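Predict the 3D structure for this chain.
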Amino acid sequence: MLNPPGLAAWELAVQLRRWSRLREIAVISPVSMERSTFVRTVLTRIAEKSLGKQVRVGPYQIPWEDGSDVVAEELVAALGLPEDRAALVDLDDLRSVAAGRVQATLMKWADRWRSLTGVSRLTSGELRGQIQRLVHHQRVHGAVARRRLSAMTVHAAKNREFDAVAVLWPYEATTDQDRARRLLYNAITRARVAAVVIVPNEKRLELPPFVERRMTTPRLRSALAQPPVPEQVVEQQVLWS
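Done. Predicted structure below.
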């Protein structure tokens, strides 16, 4: 018999098979792989081998996508920007580092800045802020390479849309009622066509955001049946392992 993460991996694989004609699918969690054994195990199991007995599904490789903060910090390190945010950096010194598309865009911005202001040096803090803005802008508008299957946190999925979304909601997710509901709403509304929520077991549905204090059972069922999501999301489910 499959344990909860194994069954959740099978459920996710079944959904991915159903969505085989969709172009862009995201697995979204309120916490990162590093913080959740459930999320990490599900993504590992689904990548290892086909799952199921009578009907085999998978495997599916679903790479974890680093958020804008991580990508920006990697570029900051590659450029060798000083830790002292007040330290001045010569813009010409940045040209010697080949760090991909964001670095090239940063240099174009720096050239325009110098042309308009005549300033050839900026502080490390100013450059860090601009890098954050560039990375976020390129990710939102598709300049960062996209995959058909990807996994990420709710924060990393902000301002983006996918054909289908599978939300993995582990016990490590916040139990603060208001924050949990906002996170779940943000995750589900990333979907254009279909969304599914997978939890470790039925007991997880007894915690926020799936229950609300002072909410009666009929009202709870109504809220789950008709969550506040865009009209184009035509399919939604809540599954447990």
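The helical segments are 4-18, 37-48, 68-79, 101-117, 124-140, 177-188, 217-225.
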